[in-house]
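A common beginner's mistake is to predict each chain separately and then try to dock the pieces by hand. The better habit, illustrated here, is to supply every component at once so that their relative placement is modeled jointly.
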Amino acid sequence: GAVVSQHPSRVICKSGTSVKIECRSLDFQATTMFWYRQFPKQSLMLMATSNEGSKATYEQGVEKDKFLINHASLTLSTLTVTSAHPEDSSFYICSASGTVNEKLFFGSGTQLSVL
Amino acid sequence: SQKIEQNSEALNIQEGKTATLTCNYTNYSPAYLQWYRQDPGRGPVFLLLIRENEKEKRKERLKVTFDTTLKQSLFHITASQPADSATYLCALEARGSQGNLIFGKGTKLSVKP
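With all components supplied together, the output reads:
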């Protein structure tokens, strides 16, 4: 099956620093990638949708200047949490879909802890 | 607004029994509904997709039903095993989306030996 690689799996950083998370589709071209955030015992909440070569579409309440998304190629999307604060601590997961599949392929997630 | 609910936060069953998980949705008529498995600290893994014109779908020990009248999907695991212990999420495509899914909170299944 299709593989989505997400890196890093875990990051601990100081408040005020920026963190970049990478999401790669390894064996297919992902026209669309999604970024989710998940708090403990909660559902996945969509943060933004990104299409290759265009600006990301952010969900209501998600600050686009704080969560920078770049989808420069059909196999790579990055999420940068700028000036991270403790309340940004969460599990961030990316997913990708190909051109015809309806199901999503998820990365393994990134646990961000901001001290 | 679209709403998707998984009634049970947790379900505990004995090994060998059939686990049945419920997913209900409101204010929406999805073209299809999906089920995912999520293990702690991991991303969800796709299990099954069922379309609105399908009543039932099977894959090995898994069975999904889709009742568009009741706006409900049931997810069954027969002959459950401790390795089936995980959180199971149902999801449906957000209306007018680019394939984005709305997820339920999930049901944490624990299969005891």
